[in-house]
């Protein structure tokens, strides 16, 4: 294994550990030592890659987002556009244990962004990436004739807003809603705008 590959592997292991620790106890309570122990590396090596907690946090968020994007984009060129869009909606919600962890990271990000300008700018940029994620999938479906033309930016903003609102309630284990109810509610708006069947597509 080359040095470059080993370095990339070490960074990925550290970032995965950081995501887990931040989700477990919250950013304000973490210490670099805790992340190093979870990743199985020395504190010195951790500091070599990430010299501050803030840098570690932002890169952990980016790492989490990138991993989710990889899952969504698998077979994107051959799968129906509706399947890809439904996959994106599921990944915008705490719909499995990994995404539940990711949502804890997002909640930490929101709190920090209210108090720290650098984090606020970073959070706004991540939302712009999420918006592009949804809008590009919608535009792809319109271009192939699978979707009815619509206000792409407006629909993308609506999808993100609905997923945020419902996602918080799912994280709170609100007994009045379920994941299936949420998916159906979000997809109802999507299907109406894009001329699709009401049923949420499955992979």
UniProtKB/TrEMBL annotation:
Gene3D superfamilies the UniProt entry points to: Tetracycline Repressor, domain 2 (1.10.357.10)
InterPro entries with a match to the protein in the record: BetI_C, Homeodomain-like_sf, HTH-type_TetR-like_transc_reg, HTH_TetR, Tet_transcr_reg_TetR-rel_C_sf
Domain of life according to the entry: Bacteria
Residues of the HTH tetR-type domain: 8-68
Residue ranges the UniProt entry marks as DNA-binding: 31-50
Key words of the record: DNA-binding, Repressor, Transcription, Transcription regulation
Keyword Transcription regulation (UniProt): yes
Keyword DNA-binding tagged: yes
PANTHER family reported for this sequence: HTH-TYPE TRANSCRIPTIONAL REGULATOR BETI, HTH-TYPE TRANSCRIPTIONAL REGULATOR RUTR
Protein name: HTH tetR-type domain-containing protein
Species, as recorded: Streptomyces siamensis
